[in-house]
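batch job 7 of whatever, protein = CN hydrolase domain-containing protein
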Amino acid sequence: MFCVSVGVNFIGGFAFASGIPKSSVSATMASNSVRVAAAQMTSISDLAANLATCSRLIKEAASAGAKLLCFPEAFSYVGTKDGDSVRVAEPLDGPIMSHYCSLARESSIWLSLGGFQEKGSDPQRLSNTHVIVDDTGKIISSYSKIHLFDVDVPGGRVYKESSFTESGKDIVAVDSPVGRLGLSVCYDLRFPEMYQLLRFQHEAQVLLVPAAFTTVTGEAHWEILLRARAIETQCYVIAAAQAGKHNDKRESYGDTLIIDPWGTIVGRLPDRLSTGIVVADIDLSFVDSVREKMPIAKQRKPIGFWKAASL
Ligand SMILES: O=C(O)CNC(=O)[C@H](CS)NC(=O)CCC(=O)C(=O)O
């Protein structure tokens, strides 16, 4: 079974839980736009099973005409306990990432692989790395998660990501066929200054937020934070999410979203927890027009202004 969902909240967006969409997708594509896709999945502690799911979703996205497919944080593996992901961690030139690079090449599609367990020099700790692969299967950029999820979730678990993860140091933006991408991972979403830098210093047009939000925090904050980041940076936001039960102890909120620079949701799966892809058309001239009509880049005050004003 598959379903296509197009409604007031899905302007230009299509979602399908599996298979090829019923409607003729290309007939509705705007002339100067580029199609993107975002995946939703429930990764488990089985590398081969997750790779098979990703492979299927990559083929779906490519046949829907998407130039870029974004996967959620921890797409290749979600362990049952913290140590598990350190054990499966590999360098970016290891066998796991090369499988994903081959899939990109075979389907001629760019991939955003958010939250790969990257092995570093410290055997006790990994980097939570967002990797961009081009349509020839080449890794062209990577960003390691800067803000680590050390949080006592009210009514939920205590998380201490820093106990097994090394924090990244560099902000990363990279050009792609769908515009200039600003890279981030999950909990970074709560730190707006990073997205301000991505927009105003690194000239991002499309912000990528692969995530595995908790159910409690997702319900309260997910959509609001994502739409706020889109509105205040005047960027498209693509937020691929882990969804549902990974194991007995772990569950993710889901609700993969694509949002335009006006804050409108243009892509959302019909079911918050299903596995599948959603596609939407990115129109960079719309980014320009929003920025031209509301010129916040020129109107914002430098830090020095605030210091002087408060004296
Ligand atoms: O470790 C893995 O397997 C994948 N990584 C995660 O799940 C990470 C670190 S524990 N989760 C988050 O950042 C949740 C953020 C969140 O839920 C919020 O900001 O509210």
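notes: The first helix runs from residue 47 to 63.
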